């Protein structure tokens, strides 16, 4: 008579081995604890991080507060991470505010080529200064800087003032890192998509 016990024992050992391996590999993933957060927790985290980012922007450029107040929509990406060796990738999540209220959540991705060893973090704030620019952004299924619209990245002059020509563009952008506002940055190729949060 055929003895099924050794076969079942081998199957049980194999399943146990796979389970242990799965636990080991889970500890090695690059997934952050935020990915397991609920949608409500992610929204709350993004909202508070966006508030902090705007606070830093106002400190770095007091004149930016006036621009933000005039904007029809403000898209804040508090933490855009980039990292690579030769070919890089950037990714971050943000919140769109219209009339001071949260109006949607978005992700941003971009690629880059060149030596950039190590991970870096930056914040991006995009100001939609006209109703038309905001409507075009909100009605798009995927929006790319350079292809769908031009973003005028703000440069701060030696006197600490924002360039008046830049401030009059339909979409104005600020990019900051730990050292403050970044100058000479291009956002061309940055893709922004709506998130279901």
Automatic annotation (TrEMBL):
Residues 110-193 form the Ysc84 actin-binding domain. It comes from the Bacteria. InterPro entries: TAT_signal (IPR006311), Ysc84_actin-binding (IPR007461). PROSITE patterns: TAT (PS51318). Coiled coil: none annotated. This is Ysc84 actin-binding domain-containing protein.
């Amino acid at each position: 008579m055929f003895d099924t016990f050794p076969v079942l024992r081998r199957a049980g050992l194999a399943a146990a081995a796979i389970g242990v391996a799965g636990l080991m590999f889970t500890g090695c993933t690059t997934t952050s604890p935020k990915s397991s957060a609920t949608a409500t927790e992610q929204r709350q985290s993004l909202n508070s991080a966006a508030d902090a980012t705007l606070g830093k922007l106002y400190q770095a450029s007091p004149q930016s507060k006036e621009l933000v107040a005039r904007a029809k929509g403000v898209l804040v990406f508090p933490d855009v991470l980039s990292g690579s060796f030769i070919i890089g990738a950037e990714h971050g999540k943000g919140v769109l505010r219209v009339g001071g209220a949260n109006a949607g959540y978005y992700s941003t991705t971009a690629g880059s080529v060149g030596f950039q060893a190590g991970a870096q973090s930056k914040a991006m704030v995009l100001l939609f200064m006209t109703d038309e620019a905001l409507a075009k952004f909100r009605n798009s299924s995927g929006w790319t800087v350079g292809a769908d619209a031009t973003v005028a990245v703000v440069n701060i002059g030696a006197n600490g003032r924002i360039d008046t020509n830049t401030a009059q563009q339909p979409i104005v952008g600020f990019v900051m890192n730990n050292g403050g506002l970044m100058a000479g940055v291009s956002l061309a190729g940055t893709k922004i998509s709506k998130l279901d949060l």
